[in-house]
Amino acid sequence: MKKFASKKCVEPRRMALARMLAHYGPWDTFGTGTFEYDASAAAAEKAFSRFMGLRPMKQIGMFWTIESHHHRDASHVHFVSQSSQHIRWSLAHKWWHERFGRFRTEKIDQERSLAPSFYLGKYMFKNPATSSWGFNKAFVNRFGKRPEAEVNELFSWKRPQGTDAFKKTSQYGFREQTKMPVVQPSQSRHVPKAVGENSQLSLQW
Predict the structure, then answer these.
(1) CA 63, CA 164: separation in Å to the nearest integer?
(2) Does the model's pTM come out above 0.85?
(3) How far apart are CA 87 and CA 60, in angstroms?
(4) What is the pLDDT of residues 135-148, one digit of tens each?
(5) Would residue 1 count as lying in a domain?
(6) Which among 29, 123, 127, 131 has a CA at the least distance from the CA of 83?
(7) DSSP β-bridge partners for residue 31
(8) What is the 3 state secondary structure string of 84-122?
(9) In degrees rounded to 5, what are phi and psi of residue 105?
């Protein structure tokens, strides 16, 4: 993966990522997991892999990325999830806190549904050479490998000399813009099937 020439190169990729994820939405929860000890990006990814392996987490679609720091091991993980309205996040908070540190989730406002994914892109494209991100198994089982390929495609975007336009290497290509468009849930092509509120699986950690 190539590094970007300037910060201006990052913004269009972040927006394209948000629009791409909206295509596979809707996403209903944004979360962050931190560590009370110094954690490398690899350690943070390993911890989140354990979290995604919990039985309730296997039922929902997730996209995650690691926020890492250049000068110290102080990584933490951000994620968005779908079909997770039935999840008892208080149990997730407890599970993470007992093992790693702080854990926070918040419901995504569908009037600003692109904002969380745009935020995730900030850390994905900040340093592409060391970027760590992925979809969980439930998401891949539902949509296949195409979303992962589309994200990888964003890393190959090149800035033509003397213009702010980017080569449209994916269907989510667009010109640089400052205002974030709103994508309503009804605009999403794929609507995942949610697990029922009374599912016993959601109670088993």
Answers:
(1) 29
(2) no
(3) 9
(4) 999 999 999 999 99
(5) no
(6) 29
(7) 79, 105
(8) CCCCCHHHHHHHHHHHCCCEEEEECCHHHCCHHHHHHHH
(9) -130, 155
26 burial level (CB within 10 Å; 0-12, 13-18, 19+): buried
Q: Which residue has tokens 């209903």?
A: 28
Q: Token digits for 106?
A: 């918040």
Is 2 contained in some domain?
A: no
- The answer to whether position 124 is within a domain reads yes
Question: What's the rounded Cα separation, in Å, for the pair 165 and 12?
Answer: 9
Q: Is 75 within the bounds of a domain?
A: yes
Q: Both tokens of residue 74?
A: 């102080």
Q: Which tokens hold the place of 59?
A: 């039922």
Q: Count Cα neighbours of 64 within 13 Å in the Cβ-side half-sphere.
A: 25
Beta-ladder partners of 29 = 81, 107
The DSSP code for 45 is: H
Quote the CA–CA distance of 73 and 57 in Å, as a whole number. 26
How many domains are there within the chain? Answer: 1
Total residue length of the chain: 205
Which pair of structure tokens corresponds to residue 113?
A: 């549904």
110-166 pLDDT, tens digit per residue, is 888 888 988 899 888 877 777 889 999 999 999 999 999 999 888 887 654 433 444
Which CATH number fits the domain that encloses residue 183? Answer: 3.30.70.1910
Q: Domain containing 46: what range?
A: 7-203
